[in-house]
Amino acid sequence: MHTAFLLPLLLLAATAESLTLKPGCQPSCGGVNIPYPFGIGQGCSRAGFEIQCNNGKPTLGNISDNTQVTSLSVTPRPEARVMLRVAYQCHNSTGAAIDNYNGSVDLNPTGVYRISDTANELFVLGCNTMVITNSIGCVAYADNAKSAQDGACAGIGCCHVDIPPGLTDNLMRFMPHAKQEFCPCDYGFIVEKGNYTFRAQDLHMDGSITSMPLRLDWAIRDNSLSCAKGYSTCVSANSECIDSTNGPGYFCNCTKGYEGNPYLDKGCTNINECARTRQEFPCYGKCRDTDGSYECKCRVGYEANGDPKENICHPQFPFAARLALGIGLGVFLLFGAVQLAIARIEHDKRKLAVQFEKNGGNILKEITEVTIFTEKELTKITKNNSEPLGKGNFGNVYKGTLTDKTVVAVKSYIKVDDARRKEFAEEMKVQLKMTHDNVLKLRGCCLQLDVPMLVYEFAGKGSLREILHVKDQSLPVDLRLDIAIGSAKGLSYMHSKHIRHGDVKPDNILLADNFVPKISDFGLSKVLIVTEYFTQNIIGAISYIDPVFRNTGLLTPKSDVYSFGAVLLELISRKPIIYGKTGSLIIEFRHIYETEKSGKSMFDLGIVAEKDILILEAIGKLAIRCLKEHQDDRPDMTEVADQLVNLKVKFGRYLTGEYACYSSGVSGTSDATLSMQSSTLEVSGLLCSQPMNQAGS
């Protein structure tokens, strides 16, 4: 084990007394206390919470990896600290893999544990690698042996990202490795925040003996999965049930004023607050412990201005002296308050003016198309942010209503500094000029805040991702085709205005009434407009990013085409871009298409009609073109939109019997035969033929 990463074997709870152990059971192993519901040996633990003690080292029971435990916590937060080996992949001088370990550890065989998303983060080390675990990952790169620097982890040799909730496996998937002899191995690991700092020498660590500390959340997940459904586990008096925030289930805590183990009878005992420190339980008078709380009173002859738990006790004044002092002090304070109020009003006015100017207001107010809202107006529009819609790239998004009853979405931008003032104003000008039915319309902005707020039109159906993967909603093929057409037209329009989106994905395709798609969250287009094409700040969703853009930083319209191809695959398969533990939609669809000359086996299982299958085949073939490795082999967005529109036209004529359509290359049907018999036209892989009696008309 790498000694630089060892975590002290300490309990997270404050005192030993607060960890009541189950009577008759082994109290500890290797210096680690074992509080119930954990236990060593038969009858000493709750099912799924078994701990094994082998050679003086505690490990999680029911897990074959012998995962070492360094501490267990029952209250106030249910956690287990463990050590896990890093995942790695090493290569020889030709780039071929010669040694690897994917790190896979099923931490959830009995449903107890989840990897804490709030206490851990993912690190990737390497010189030209991308590592993905459970749909999240990042890219680390370096062009020479000296480019990585100790303490720097922003992409050169090292990158790190937060992880989502619900993870139960440490499985790492390594992307292909370049031939770089100065950096022979790639590494991926999840580690407790604050417990790892990158060092350049770690690019040559021995992955086979290196482990990292991380925290696991745990909860009671059998029988009752929430407090609302009833529970019998919190057996101690003065205990309470709390719903888990990382997956289903619940855990127990002692109520305020008590401590101990809520999972054992009489496990929660009264806290003697008077014996603790004043910082923990303040009292400026005489303290007296009570059951579940404590009293604090000033001694005789003294008083406090309020609660003596918060205010110092002082000698009492005679009434007349207090009255005179109070009147004089009141007059003084009243005068001071008036002056302070006047000063504050002037200060607030100056602050609002400064923020308005800092955020480019003096430039934007010259534009007649933009509505500039005041802070007061925005508060009224959003009803003081009372209806949150979700979280965008830069902050929260709220629902609002304008004075004319128009519903809008109000979202945060990013903080505008002096260097970005003019750039922000120019970006607003560009967005205000974008008037297309399939691009989310900017209605106005508020500049009197530290962080500008932007007011957009409202798309009430939510995102395409929600429709495809969250909501159980019917999605007919013709509606999917309409969504694809509208989205393609929106992107084509952006490209015609010299704007590249940079983050095309289902989350950023919003759906308004009648499922009209709206391109939103322009991602990199916020910084790459008109003539700028290059960036090292790759902020898009990594699974959708064009490999050429990812490797070079060169963002072109064809980069958006690649990402849109991935969106088309999600539309026809209703599978997320990363599904299951190892499934990559792009890789799997390419493989199926190349081997079977059809994507039918990956289509949405809810699509069974032959006419619908033909349409999906055509869309799938178009997606494959969009996902070509070389940008020159991909169509542009205008051609993509035209192909989809033509497909809709032919599809409509097929339904009316005017055309008969077949998927190109269908067994037993050749293009030549059809051409001799009728007038034919192939649109994105769908071959449609007009009957002979109509072909000449």
TrEMBL record:
Q: Where is the EGF-like domain?
A: 223-269
One GO biological process this protein is involved in is: cell surface receptor signaling pathway
Entries under InterPro entries matching the protein = EGF, EGF-like_Ca-bd_dom, EGF_Ca-bd_CS, Growth_fac_rcpt_cys_sf, Kinase-like_dom_sf, Prot_kinase_dom, Protein_kinase_ATP_BS, Ser-Thr/Tyr_kinase_cat_dom
- Keywords assigned: ATP-binding, Disulfide bond, EGF-like domain, Glycoprotein, Kinase, Nucleotide-binding, Serine/threonine-protein kinase, Signal, Transferase
Entry superkingdom:
Eukaryota
Q: Which Pfam families does the record associate with it?
A: GUB_WAK_bind, PK_Tyr_Ser-Thr
* Signal peptide range: 1-16
Give the residues the record marks as binding ATP.
K411
Topology in the lipid bilayer is annotated as: Single-pass type I membrane protein
Name the chain's protein. Protein kinase domain-containing protein
Q: Does the keyword Disulfide bond apply?
A: yes
A GO cellular component entry from the record: plasma membrane
Is Kinase given among the entry's keywords? Answer: yes
Q: Name one GO molecular function term.
A: ATP binding
User: What residues does the Protein kinase domain cover?
Assistant: 383-645
| Alphabetical list of PROSITE patterns matching this protein | EGF_3, EGF_CA, PROTEIN_KINASE_ATP, PROTEIN_KINASE_DOM, PROTEIN_KINASE_ST
The record's Gene3D superfamilies line, in alphabetical order, gives: Laminin, Phosphorylase Kinase, domain 1, Transferase(Phosphotransferase) domain 1
Where does the record say this protein resides? Membrane
